[in-house]
Amino acid sequence: MSSKPSTLKGTRDFGPVEVEKRNYIIETIRQAYLRFGYRPIETPAMEKLETLTGKYGDEGDQLLFKVLNNGDFLSKVKPDLLDQRDSHAVLPQIAKRGLRYDLTVPFARYVAMHQHELAFPWKRYQIQSVWRGDRPQRGRYQEFVQCDADVVGTTSLLCEAEFLQIYDQVFTALGLQVVIHINHRQILAGIAEHFGFGDQFREISVAIDKWDKIGRDKVMDELSSKGLTGDRLPDMLDLYESGNIDSLRDLQPTGTLAEGLAQIDEILSYVDTDAMKQTVRLDIRLARGLSYYTGCIFEVSSAQVDIGSISGGGRYDELTSVFGLKGTSGVGISFGLARIYDVMTELDLFPAKAVKSLDALFLCMDADSLAHGWRMVTGLRASGARVDIYPELAKFKKLMKHADQRGVRRIVIIGEDERQSQLYTLRDMNTGEQQKLSIDDLRSLLVADS
Amino acid sequence: MSSKPSTLKGTRDFGPVEVEKRNYIIETIRQAYLRFGYRPIETPAMEKLETLTGKYGDEGDQLLFKVLNNGDFLSKVKPDLLDQRDSHAVLPQIAKRGLRYDLTVPFARYVAMHQHELAFPWKRYQIQSVWRGDRPQRGRYQEFVQCDADVVGTTSLLCEAEFLQIYDQVFTALGLQVVIHINHRQILAGIAEHFGFGDQFREISVAIDKWDKIGRDKVMDELSSKGLTGDRLPDMLDLYESGNIDSLRDLQPTGTLAEGLAQIDEILSYVDTDAMKQTVRLDIRLARGLSYYTGCIFEVSSAQVDIGSISGGGRYDELTSVFGLKGTSGVGISFGLARIYDVMTELDLFPAKAVKSLDALFLCMDADSLAHGWRMVTGLRASGARVDIYPELAKFKKLMKHADQRGVRRIVIIGEDERQSQLYTLRDMNTGEQQKLSIDDLRSLLVADS
């Protein structure tokens, strides 16, 4: 290797403070999932390519990372395919593994595969990395962590209500102000039907989902180009523009639309939105791209930082059927760790305790002091304190520079005086304040702190 | 997908109880690392192939998982290479990414890349998955978790002593009895030199490392076949057979051997092995295959279950030099999660608290009771209890079967009586014992338990 070492574009290292802050978010989410009866599973990073392919649309298939078969991978490829340089046809002959693209498909595969061991309704959470070959750009990575929870095997709308409560508890615990947008695929379908566009429901959903990014006029253009015409198109867009629940009720809905609205009403009847710290808003322009949603859909945005969606989810009726398990309705949500991290960083919301820094670093002035300090550190660690010792003899200036670079809160200085008196100098690195403490006082202070 | 869904050979799913037990081990290791001043980093699963290639020997290069470039990957391959079906030469043209094979090389890459941000001696721990294309077999997987800690930038033998203490604390906390074998590469080199085989040190290490598996005679055969001859070979093997520190001192060592022994003596002088719960043993037959070790080496085996090494490590002087950072000595250890899990399972050592089961599951007899139970569950969760509710109406038998399948410790039954009296039936599912509790008593019981 001649060049400087580096990571792949779209991937990144996390240093100690980043890992600990990320773990603080993860732990907050995890504790909420546990309180609501969700239990963890983990699935392999590599799945059979056939498990992943065809689940995310053509674009998703392109973005899947495929893992090359080991050994002489070309030996089994049909010669004419190589001659034609047909990457698409060669692929399945040289790669049988892919990296998971999300946690939903592996979860569906898990449920279908282990269905006879599971007690339905079955609740699981899963916090793992996923990989996508998107073009790397600011805030978009090829490897990122998702924090999912799903419940399958029941159509009870109490599940949707639980997710509203989980959102409320998690974001409140993190100190964030968010808006939880909810909508229902049957509301979207019902609106399309009402205006005579029932057959173009899918195109409408895709276009409406982009409303807040591209605006009404471009949505109109997109729908016109897809063949939606007539006076009823602007009427429908008026409704979407108002985004208003009353306008929706004014339509005196029947059928699909009425069903969607009734479900939203039922869900909201289960939660005391007034007592919630976060805002829940019926947002009829919320569509979510993923085609597998069939019921209620969720999306959460920060009320403080304009960064797009920080969580999303919804109900799906047939997710596991592609793996042979039919009639198993489910609903789930996913927190995007990276964006929540970015919002919390921008708002400076991480508490000091999120970062597990040392309780104290011991700096020793001579060989006898180093031996003395080592015994103290050994005892303190055995008592549970997080302490460290500079393990070599060095000039005081170098020791202090090390303590400073390392960002430790406190140092304990040991020289001949301290050894003789058995009173040790503790310095607070932020305030510069110093005090002399016995080993017992030092232990009480540091262990209480850990 | 017509066939039944499945995972790839060599990979596996982890269900809730497995994940929680694994996390219990991880958390025990993590807390020890933190107490000793180690801080976490995380590196990407995918590294540049050039970062990984050539670091693990030819066999390792074979076992690296390579990730296919996205898009039309064949378009840039030189035609003659395809014609010759030269997998080896085609590889770098179609794959620039690899999955990490261990945590040591990514760590060395990290240190070299971020050297100007780090305060040396620098301590990091890292707990992540690694991937190897080994042939899958019982107890050997293609994806597994390693739990590493390393310190770089100091030659102080206090670091080696710390690892002995970490081993002692971690395995004691897990309830295991282990033997911590230590040796030193200079002892191995010194023995070879002493018997006139200094140039064959590497071959001797490789053969001796297998002693406990294949026995003295086969080690002798292997060394003879490598060109080691003469009377001094059996003499050397006698020494290895005795495995005895006194026989070693009887050689009246000088030079390399004396240095190695002196380092071991110094390390042991820093720890009070009598006070340790685990056994430390100088084991001159311990060699460890990895060629980058230059100083003290460690290996831990269970004293209770014959399963091979459950942790290993050692000092290396030039690990980061391949990435351009020279003269940075380091020492590290790695815990193998899967084997520790297997030993603990065999010995039934997981405490009940390792598994985060529900505090209680609510079962409701009718629609009004379900609404009532839902409000109770909502309040209990907000208070921190881990509770769940069966979210539909169902026959009592079905509800009980669900509670049973789910393995919950306690159920709360709510019917008309309970609603009226506001005294709720709590049943212990293990003992069958029932009691009637008010909501306040229920809350005290369940929240205290969480």
Walk me through this protein's architecture.
By secondary structure, chain A is of the alpha+beta class. The first copy, chain A, has two domains: 16-46 and 101-346, BirA Bifunctional Protein, domain 2; 357-449, Anticodon-binding domain (Rossmann fold, 3-Layer(aba) Sandwich). The first copy, chain A, has 18 helices and 16 strands. Chain A has helices at 16-35, 49-52, 57-63, 79-83, 87-94, 104-113, 158-174, 185-194, 201-209, 211-225, 232-242, 245-250, 255-270, 337-346, 367-382, 396-406, 416-421, 439-449, and strands at 39-40, 46-48, 66-67, 97-99, 122-131, 143-152, 178-184, 279-282, 296-302, 309-316, 330-336, 360-364, 387-389, 410-414, 424-428, 434-437. The first copy, chain A, has an eight-stranded mixed sheet with strand order 1-5-6-11-10-9-7-8. In chain A, strands 13-12-14-15-16 form a five-stranded mixed sheet, sandwiched between helices. In chain A, helix 15 links the parallel strand 12 and strand 13 (387-389). Chain A is globular. Chain A starts with 15 loop residues before the first helix and ends with a helix. The relative contact order of chain A is 0.10. The mean pLDDT of chain A is 94. Chains A and B meet through helix 1, strand 1, strand 2, strand 3 and helix 5 of A and helix 1, strand 1, strand 2, strand 3 and helix 5 of B.
